[in-house]
Amino acid sequence: MPERVLDVRNLSTHFFTEDGVVKSVDQVSFYINSEETLGIVGESGCGKSVTSLSIMQLIPSPPGKIVGGEILFRGENLLTKSSEEMRKIRGNDIAMIFQEPMTSLNPVYTIGDQIAEAVVLHQKVNKKEAWKRAVDMLREVGIPSPEKRVREYPHQMSGGMRQRVMIAMAMSCNPQLLIADEPTTALDVTIQAQILDLMRKLKREFHTSIMLITHDLGVVAEMADRVAVMYAGKIVEESSTGDLFREPLHPYTQGLLDSIPRLDQPAAEKLHVIEGTVPNPLNLPKGCTFAPRCPKVMDICREKTPMLTEVSEGRKVSCWLHVDPQKQPSGKEAAS
Amino acid sequence: MSAVLQDQKAHGVLMEVRDLTKYFPITGGLFSRVVGQVKAVDGVSFDLRRGETLGLVGESGCGKTTTGRAVLRLIEPTSGTIKFEGQDITKLSKREMRALRREMQIIFQDPFGSLNPRMSVGQIIEEPLVIHRVGNRKEREARVRQLLEVVGLASYHVRRYPHEFSGGQRQRIGIARAIALNPKIIVADEPVSALDVSIQSQILNLMEDLQHEFGLTYLFIAHGLNVIRHISDRVGVMYLGAMVEIASSEEIYHKPLHPYTEALFSAIPIPNPDIKRERIILQGDVPSPVNPPSGCRFHTRCPIAQEKCKVDRPILKESGPDHWVACHYR
């Protein structure tokens, strides 16, 4: 059995606002094996970013709070670590890259300073070695004349270059897990292709596991080994990438795949539409949260929340079409 | 395609854009002297045919938005001609232009920034009617309610404010405002880029329905190639202020001629893990429009560039039926 680098169990992160409690992440479980890429897809507000920030324990508190669950990283629960211990893990064992490289880089330091800072912080090296490591990493991520660019400031670089710098920084301590939150969303398609190519190359070389968060189903299809689809704070489907795209089981996944204009298929007259909008997180519907928009809704869907259940080898779905209500443990659901 | 639309297309060109140029000055120094120019749009020509959707696609900084605004004279073009129904609108006075704006409207990308938060939805949609003195108050109110229903909102939404709506609903409000005066042309500048996929398809379908119903002509600007291919009859590809290729959307997708178009299409990730494609990954970044490369703008990244490309700027020529490309070797 492959080693589980990350094992998230029943994670719940809630935000306590003036208007009420927002269950941004609600009883979410998933795992990532070593050298595996897990894609997490969903639309805005589905909880995919909050999930990643929970793993890093970067949830702004208040109003946010991890209210339950376990985050096992190499078998150790991160939620029981002190902030001191977390600081050692962050950037060293688990690194993260964000959507907007400009806001994640400090404009008043050279990129060399910023990469070297992370290296000095986590590895037992002196400043000179750290600087050399920064140059090496910039070369590794394909930045031309790295000896020169290492002395430049973030504003002197293009968006694609900045994202490369972010990746160089994230990989500089050779992390076991890289969390990439919409890493190419702000980039143009030709630059996106370069960055995705780079991420694939680095994954091979550094044997890193990647948690890739994106709303772009194309990016997921290309990069991920497995996919988890999130909707309104829950994972609604999880499977290998091939199975998910070949035969999506959850009506939401099906709707999502049908509603994007496809370049690999003849142009359709009319696009498929998922009726309605994402429910208000302060006032989630009873039962399955997708029920009000679901074309295949049944009576039970409005009453009982289906749990993510394994329906075949490696395939999990939370939908009453695929899950037998008789076999579902009901006590826990009734309580939540 | 409906018979009505086919018939309208036979009527030919609604807007003819020739050698459109827009340079933005860069000022610097103590006296804000002009020290350079951003060549945002540099000699772009195309026709907008009656009843069609022409998609403009390209990466950030290629000049597609500037082109969209310049053809409505929301940005004054530096040079070039824009003929709307045979009349050169670049020569019109401000007052004449304002009257003509009834015929040309725009939908913006950001459904948050483009609606005044202090105005109710009713006021927002009514505003163009007021400015152009259409009908009396009662008639306008009735029109606003009718428009709300046309775009899939309810007439009771009229008293609400933009913040009470989701992104998709706000985009519907923007669309209602744009069609209020029964325009002939709508420039849609990235209308679905800020929306989630499930909402995106709702808006695209709405825009298609409205086009059929009211015989609208769209200049549809977007960077999402799948969206562009879906909605457009013809597609123009821009790179660094220049139009590099223009053809029917099926033609350009199946038979791209310009090496940039080819690379652009091959770079889009496709949501189908079973398809293995030959990917062309372009090297480097888009050069700065302040100091664009000599000759063909694309030669610095082009996989088939020759010596000639560095000196000679290719012009758009017809290399197949209704398929125009600006490349020396295609």
Automatic annotation (TrEMBL), chain A:
It comes from the Bacteria. It is a peripheral membrane protein. This is Peptide ABC transporter ATP-binding protein. Pfam families: ABC_tran, oligo_HPY. GO terms for molecular function: ATP binding; ATP hydrolysis activity. Keywords: ATP-binding, Cell membrane, Membrane, Nucleotide-binding, Transport. GO terms for biological process: peptide transport. One of its GO terms (cellular component) is plasma membrane. Its main location: membrane. Residues 6-257 form the ABC transporter domain. InterPro entries: AAA+_ATPase, ABC_Ni/Peptide_Import, ABC_transporter-like_ATP-bd, ABC_transporter-like_CS, Oligopep_ABC_C, P-loop_NTPase. Belongs to the ABC transporter superfamily. It is found in: Cell membrane. PROSITE patterns: ABC_TRANSPORTER_1 (PS00211), ABC_TRANSPORTER_2 (PS50893).
Automatic annotation (TrEMBL), chain B:
GO terms for biological process: peptide transport; transmembrane transport. The keyword Calcium does not apply. One of its GO terms (molecular function) is ATP binding. InterPro entries: AAA+_ATPase, ABC_transp_ATP-bind, ABC_transporter-like_ATP-bd, ABC_transporter-like_CS, Oligopep_ABC_C, P-loop_NTPase. Pfam families: ABC_tran (PF00005), oligo_HPY (PF08352). Keywords: ATP-binding, Nucleotide-binding, Transport. Residues 15-265 form the ABC transporter domain. The keyword Transmembrane does not apply. PANTHER family: D,D-DIPEPTIDE TRANSPORT ATP-BINDING PROTEIN DDPF-RELATED, TRANSPORT ATP-BINDING PROTEIN. Belongs to the ABC transporter superfamily. This is Peptide ABC transporter substrate-binding protein. It comes from Sulfobacillus benefaciens. The lineage of its organism: Bacteria, Bacillati, Bacillota, Clostridia, Eubacteriales.
